[in-house]
Design a protein that fits this description.
- The complex is a heterodimer of chains A (about 725) and B (about 250).
- Chain A is of the alpha/beta class.
- Chain A contains 16 helices and 37 strands.
- In chain A, helix 2 (about 30-50) packs antiparallel against helix 16 (about 710-725).
- Chain B is of the alpha/beta class.
- Chain B has one domain: Domain of unknown function DUF4159 (Rossmann fold), CATH 3.40.50.12140.
- Chain B has helices at about 1-15, 40-55, 90-100, 120-130, 205-225, 230-249; strands spanning about 25-30, 60-65, 75-80, 105-110, 140, 165-170, 175-180.
- The longest helix of chain B is centred in the last third of the chain and has 20 residues, at about 205-225.
- Chain B starts with a helix and ends with a helix.
- The chains are: A alpha/beta (about 725), B alpha/beta (about 250).
- The interface between A and B is large, with 54 and 50 residues.
């Protein structure tokens, strides 16, 4: 029980001080009884003014809580150099369980997830440990939540028994820093038995560029191998491409070796880093790590052939030159055979047109070929054009034909390999070229999106200036997409005449533009005060589509990792964007899996998790490649499809992690202000936690200042004061 | 024989009149005040020369452009010529020219007076400082693509050599304005009998030929941009320059 006052106490003390001065003055005149009486009255009044409250508390003694977290992952069941879990059982029986007389013990078992264990006996009954991951971070996070829900958490602590071979997703050090109670870690296993070398980590960017150096940083750990010089190989498709040496300076501490590799090919390439296994090595499975590198072209190389000097070339080149990732090599027919030059040849800057070299060999070093109002007839035979077909269909190159009076049928392409790859049907040499101005109507298609919103896009397309002159195609071929057409003219089927048409042909893509006057968009938009922005943007969009840039993909599927250990969960995420590249929340996403055996599975439990993201997962039980393909649509509108490959490796890290990761357990203890103990030396084991704690179980408050007792006392003292003064003749 | 000649004549005539949608026109600014056309027939001579020596599809028609409508935007290459001071452009005209360059237009200015900081030159600098308030005319470097666009140009000339270089304003990643102070179009001017009207000084006819080549290069630059600076061409051009130097020695 205690008395509580408010802040008036300070004022009260000041008043006492002045009262004492008053008493001293009256004492000098031998009027002590009166002084005492008045002081009492004064004190009583002050007491009442302070509004005193009587607080009544009931307290109880409780045991402190100790949460015991035991690692039951597969690595604890490894019998070399000794069976770790047997040691754990021994610790539980001889050390931990004995704490229950002083503490309230709560047991938890963890591997990938955490589970409450009612009784320690349950640990002793465990025969085989199957936990496929060791997620210490997640286990501590779950205990943190348990502690937050418990009012006594300040008087708790955690004991973690593990080999420290964490391979989960949650960072245990970060959780330990914020858990708010000390974590006492007990390391089980041996860090110093047997000789082993291990590739502990490989850091490399997922994407590299052709002909550009990329760094591959390999971390190597050694046990009982101090001063040993280790050779590390970098292999591509099992073939050695580089060898480096690294010296192990300290047991269990990572040494770094760096490979500077310059890729010459493009595409996805599988690499391995490996340490050749040594004779006495206790674990040879941790000597290799594999990774994939997606090697992209450093620059998109564009070969542009123009039939004559013209504004379409100058304007389009200007657009392409603004993109530093494009390298444009142009040939323009500046002079034809009929042109007579009145000056010596050596004063000209013209170079011969290397047609044969370009179309037989050089074409394959480019990514995009543009033929603009270019007729091959005067320069080479149609046989050379078959390489363009191969370039597109087999080598995945992109081909663009831009119109004009010497293009398409009029350029002599009917019956050639070019005709086969064009997305439009063309006429013969007498193909009609229609003079005059016209406007185009766009199709609703991502490539045609040049503004942020649908409304804005429509306004821009409606305001695009007229083009001039177009090639009259017979019709768009089946499978082609007509991005823009002119409604005032019809093709052979009565549809609007195609002007801008695209399609996929074999591995490559083709764009056919039936005019060479798109520069008018730039000048016309500028006349309206809009500069050349939308003109440039549209051509950039077309070129992005041609090179199949991921930026234009509306459906993107990816897995959280590329390589998984057997038994790990493969998380598949699909992002869906609408035509305006905004997150699509209401798409239907169909995800199919081709597993290592070739069996096709469909996912029924796809969850929408916001921001255009759809998710599903599967456990990688079988070793090999898992191909996930996602297809998304909304009503009849398809957003496209995408595919990703993940691979499950035969060895789980739980099989590889033989040794005790003492450093991690020390760091966890240190981060939470706890302490680390090795299982071999538990004599000093002490959890520095008060066994019992006094806990307030109930509390009551009673107001006493308005009690009649104080009123009676004040009246009584005033009466006595009056009486004393009367008999003393002071009245 | 007669029939054959007639047939050739017909073909030529046809190609001249059937202008395609992307035909190159000689577009010249017709401004107020001063003399917008000091060499009235030069364009026709330039046309004949370009058509007979290059693959540029040109129309034998001059477009006289005023700045009171948007017609200028149909012609991405514009010639401004003169020999004396002209009237100040209105704010609307300045805005049209700004937009023209925003859209990718290129302009060639020929000062037929050949007098720097006087008359026409002063008016041009006054108006272009309004169009490009943050840019001034700068000397175009000798290695600019203009000097390699079709011919190798060792010298910048006109009927005179008042300023032995071209000036220009770079805008939108291109030399948007090219300025000659040497009466370049004057070298093309002929009388009705086909004789050149103006003498070229100080190098005579050799200077005229250099001027012809420079004219072609400026037109080529307007149609092809800087492509002659691409590695594949510049290596070849470099070799040619070395050959030329050897011959000169």
């Amino acid at each position: 029980m205690k008395l509580e006052f408010n802040l008036w106490i300070i004022i009260f003390l000041i008043l006492i001080y002045f009262s004492l001065i008053y008493i001293r003055k009256f004492a000098e005149r031998n009027k002590l009884p009166l002084i005492i009486l008045r002081t009492l009255i004064f004190l009583l009044l002050v007491f009442v003014f302070l509004h005193p409250v009587l607080v009544k508390e009931e307290r109880k003694i409780k045991k402190s809580k100790v949460l015991v977290l035991v690692d039951v992952s597969k690595s604890m069941d490894i019998k070399y150099p000794f069976h770790k879990f047997s040691v754990v059982k021994d610790i539980l029986m001889n050390k931990i369980d004995k704490l229950k007389k002083d503490y309230n013990l709560m047991y938890f078992a963890f591997a990938g997830s955490t589970q409450r264990i009612v009784d320690v006996e349950q640990f002793f009954k465990m025969q085989k440990l199957e936990g496929k991951t060791t997620d210490i971070g997640n286990a501590l996070k779950e205990l943190k939540e348990e502690l937050l829900n418990n009012e006594d958490s300040a008087e708790s602590s955690v004991i973690l028994i593990s080999d420290g071979n964490h391979n989960g997703m949650v960072d245990p050090i970060e959780v330990a820093k914020s858990i708010g109670v000390p974590i006492y870690t007990i390391g089980v296993g041996s860090a110093k038995v047997g000789f082993d070398l291990e590739i502990s980590d490989v850091s490399v960017s997922d994407i590299a560029f052709r002909n550009t150096e990329t760094n591959i940083i390999v971390k190597v750990k050694g046990y009982n191998s101090v001063s040993k010089m280790v050779s590390v190989f970098l292999k591509k498709d099992k073939e050695i491409i580089s060898e480096k040496f690294v010296k192990i300076k300290e047991d269990g501490k990572e040494a770094e070796v760096r490979f500077n590799y310059v890729p010459v090919e493009t595409g996805k390439v599988r690499f391995q880093v490996t340490i050749p296994p040594m004779k006495d090595e206790i674990n040879k499975e941790n000597n290799t790590k594999e990774f994939d590198l997606n090697i992209l072209k450093e620059k998109v190389r564009i070969l542009y052939l123009s039939g004559s000097p013209n504004f379409e070339y100058r304007f389009l080149r200007q657009v392409l030159k603004t993109n530093p990732n494009y390298e444009v090599v142009s040939f323009i027919i500046l002079r034809s055979g009929e042109d007579i030059i009145p000056f010596p040849e050596n004063e000209l800057t013209l170079i011969p047109f290397p047609a044969t070299e370009l179309f037989t060999k050089e074409i394959f070093s480019f990514d995009i070929l543009v033929l603009e109002n270019f007729s091959y007839i005067k320069y080479f035979s149609p046989q050379l054009l078959s390489s363009v077909k191969d370039f597109v269909e087999k080598f995945g190159g992109a081909f663009v034909m831009i119109g004009g009076e010497e293009s398409y049928g009029r350029g002599g392409y009917k019956g050639t390999a070019i005709e086969e790859i064009l997305p439009v049907e063309i006429g013969g040499i007498d193909e009609e070229y229609i003079q005059g101005f016209f406007k185009v109507k766009p199709l609703e298609h991502p490539v045609n999106v040049i503004a942020d919103t649908k409304e804005e896009n429509e306004v821009i397309w409606n305001n695009l200036p007229e083009l001039e002159g177009c090639n009259k195609f017979i019709r768009a071929k089946k499978g082609a997409v007509v991005l823009a057409s002119r409604e005032d003219l019809k093709d052979a089927d009565g549809h609007s005449l195609p002007v801008i048409t695209i399609w996929q042909r074999g591995k490559g893509r083709v764009l056919a533009v039936g005019t060479n006057s798109t520069w008018r968009w730039s000048m016309g938009l500028a006349s309206m005060g809009k500069g050349s922005f939308y003109y440039s943007k549209y051509w950039h969009q077309l070129f992005k589509w041609l090179i199949n840039t991921p930026e234009l993909k509306q459906v993107n599927v990816l897995t959280d990792k590329k390589l998984y250990n057997k038994g790990e969960t493969i998380r598949v995420l699909v992002t869906v964007l609408n035509d305006y590249y905004q997150y699509e929340d209401n798409a239907i996403v169909d995800i199919k899996l081709k597993d290592p055996s070739g069996k096709i599975l469909s996912f029924n439990d796809i969850q929408y998790i916001g921001n255009g993201l759809y998710e599903c997962s599967i456990i990688g039980e079988d070793i090999g490649k898992y191909t996930f393909s996602a297809n998304s649509y909304k009503g009849s509108k398809s957003f496209g499809k995408d595919e990703v490959i993940a691979e499950v490796l035969p060895v789980s890290s739980e099989d590889k992690d033989v040794f005790l990761n003492e450093k991690l357990l020390q760091d966890i203890a240190e981060s939470s202000k706890g302490e680390y103990f090795n299982s071999k030396n538990l004599s000093s084991f002490n959890i520095k936690l008060k066994p019992v704690v006094e806990v307030i179980t109930s509390q009551g408050k009673y107001v006493i200042w308005d009690s009649p007792v104080f009123f009676i006392l004040i009246v009584l003292f005033l009466t006595v004061d009056w009486y004393l003064r009367r008999i003393s003749g002071l009245l | 024989m007669r029939v054959k000649i007639l047939f050739i004549f017909f073909l030529l005539n046809f190609t001249l009149v059937a202008y395609s949608s992307n035909t190159f026109y000689f577009a010249q600014l017709k401004y107020n005040g001063g003399n917008w056309d000091p060499n009235p027939d030069s364009w026709s001579e330039i046309y004949d020369f370009i058509v007979s020596t290059t693959n540029v599809h040109c129309a034998k028609e001059r477009k006289e452009i005023t700045l009171n409508n948007n017609e200028i935007f149909n012609y991405p290459f514009l010639v401004i010529s003169g020999d004396s001071e002209f009237n100040k452009f209105s704010d609307k005209e300045i805005e049209i020219l700004k937009r023209y360059f925003d859209g990718g237009g290129i302009c060639f200015i020929d000062d037929a007076s050949g007098i720097k900081d006087f008359g026409f030159d002063r008016a041009i600098k006054r108006e272009f400082s309004r169009i490009f308030p943050n840019s001034n005319f700068e000397r175009i470097k000798d290695n600019h693509a203009i000097f390699y666009a079709f011919y190798l140009i060792p010298q910048v000339v006109g009927t005179r050599v008042s300023v032995p270089y071209l000036e220009g304003i770079e805008y939108n990643n291109q030399m948007a304005v090219i300025y000659s102070h040497n009466d370049l179009f004057g070298i093309w001017a002929k009388d009705k009998l086909g004789n050149f009207l103006k003498d070229c000084s100080p190098y005579g006819e050799k200077q005229r030929f250099e001027g012809m080549k420079l004219t072609v290069n400026i037109f080529m630059y307007a149609l092809t941009g800087t492509y002659k600076l691409d590695a594949i061409h510049s290596q070849y051009i470099q070799r040619k320059i070395e050959e030329m130097r050897m011959l000169e020695k």
